[in-house]
Amino acid sequence: VAKCKLGDRQSYSALYAKYAQPMYNTSLRIVNNRFDAEDVLQEAFTSAFQYLGDFDYSSTFGAWLKRIVVNRSIDLLRRRKALVVDIDAMEKYAEPNEEPEEDTSRWKLEQVKRSVSELPTGYRTVITLHLFEGYEYDEIATMLGISATTVRTQYHRARKKLLEMIRKEIENEG
Q1: CA-CA distance, 160 to 168, in Å (whole number)?
Q2: Which residues make Cβ contacts (< 8 Å) with residue 36, sequence separation at least 6?
Q3: Measured distance CA(49)–CA(4) in Å, rounded
């Protein structure tokens, strides 16, 4: 990063090579479209390199870049009006703590990924940001411009919907 700030072109390439794939994966989990994820990736790197002088080392470069990627992904969903967070208009589910925990050890990673990609956009976004990207409810609420309570509710509903989808897929296989 320091070399990039000094204008070393090879360092830009090295940063891109190091972070492109994980940042693409982050965006893909949110936008659920490889072409959109590629666009977000390019926009994020362009923005990061343009504002590299503002990077103050208070976090890692990867964390700083991930925040840009997440914000760009959310912006894309907003522009397409695909980010639906009105929980009152969504189907109702039982409260999250009313069901026993299920043994998920037999689930295959691909089943989980496929099921997450099939969730409605609002659910997929919240579950991705919390479960896969590690953001706390308050951080997600700030990013999405909604309350932390709404984020928690969406997360628990998304989790329940995800469990139902995977159970159904397992039943259909067996």
Answers
A1: 12
A2: 27, 76
A3: 8
Is the Cβ–Cβ distance between 159 and 127 less than 8 Å?
Answer: yes
Ramachandran angles phi, psi of 162, nearest 5°? -60, -45
Q: What angle do CA 20, 30, 78 make, to 5 degrees?
A: 115
pLDDT for the residue numbered 82: 54
**Residue ranges of the chain with pLDDT lower than 70?**
82-107, 174
pTM: 0.73
